[in-house]
Amino acid sequence: MPKITALRGEGVSLAAAAHAFLATPRTANPNTHRAYASAIDRTIDVLGRDRPLADVTDAEIGAALTELWGRCAPATWNRNRAAVASWLLWCQTKKHWAAPSVPAEAERRKESTDETRAVAKTTIHRLLSRRDIPLREKTLWRMLYETAARAAEILALNVEDLDLEHRRAPVRSKGGAVEWVYWETGTAHLLPRLLRLPDGSTRTHGPVFLSERRPVPARRPAAADICPHTGRARLGYDRARVLLDKYAGLDLHQLRHSAATHLGDAEIPLQLIMGKTRHKNPRTAMRYVKPGAEAIAKVTEVLAPRHRTH
After folding, report:
1. CB 18: neighbour CB atoms within 10 A?
2. Does the pTM of the predicted model rise above 0.85?
3. Which of 19-23, 34-38, 53-57 has the lowest mean pLDDT?
4. Are strands 178-182 and 168-172 parallel, antiparallel or unpaired?
5. How far apart are CA 78 and CA 75, in angstroms?
6. Burial of 153 by CB count in 10 Å (0-12 exposed, 13-18 middle, 19+ buried)?
7. Three-state SS letters, the chain
8. What is the pLDDT of residues 225-275, one digit of tens each?
């Protein structure tokens, strides 16, 4: 990230304003920085990176948001809208630049509570055994399920973070703390194949999960997000989300939710489930370990009349 100097008065470009915001402490967490940078960069690409910030209208901001995420799920719309709104509010209140706002019509969307977000264990195992699923996706989805980690945490992993022998890796959680996630045999078998290069050698540094192509110069990410072996960039959250929806009609977070639910179905104590998912609040964890349909059906058997044994 280049050093950002103070910018005053009219003529501050969208790109310069974005760089200034992304250099602030509020985006110091790598996962937060990556999410904000993705939303803001895509928005200013639509509007014109070199345009003066003061020349952009509220309506243009709303139109850009609609073009980029208008057809996405409410959670995706809300996440990217919030990132852009936070950036523009910072420009107005902290830098006192003339800047547009997210218009009222581009309001937050209601995220409906889905009581069936947990997917049956048989459905997940069937998905992960399909032969038409590419190795990268199969590894990512299995890792998300076995670690019960957030997608952003796993996508942020580098090869040098992986402790393949002990099947674990450190991730940076929402609050910024470094915590360990653990995986099982399925992920352990897939990771070495994912890291293997065409010449038979193995990647030793850089992002674990890579995009299909090398980045174009105009949108070149930070050096830490580029594989030194292949020149390809880190796989982004939006692309990973689109692919899971394409192959299975699922959301990335459903893999984490399903893992927690399946642990609850297996009567694993809440304290251990919280250790696995790394939730700090029992009330929050309870939302994820609500018994699934299979567990409810099994409990219902207790209400059936006893069969005579003679």
Report:
1. 21
2. no
3. 34-38
4. antiparallel
5. 5
6. buried
7. CCCCCCCCCCCCEHHHHHHHHHCCHHHCCHHHHHHHHHHHHHHHHHHCCCCEHHHCCHHHHHHHHHHHHCCCCHHHHHHHHHHHHHHHHHHHHCCCCCCCCCCCCCCCCCCCCCCCCCCCHHHHHHHHCCCCCCHHHHHHHHHHHHHCCCHHHHHCCEHHHCECCCCEEEEECCCCCEEEEECCHHHHHHHHHHHECCCCCECCCCECCECCCCCCHHHCCCHHHECCCCCCEECCHHHHHHHHHHHHCCCHHHHHHHHHHHHHHCCCCHHHHHHHHCCCCHHHHHHHCCCCHHHHHHHHHHHCCCCCCC
8. 999 999 999 999 989 999 999 999 999 989 999 999 899 888 888 889 999
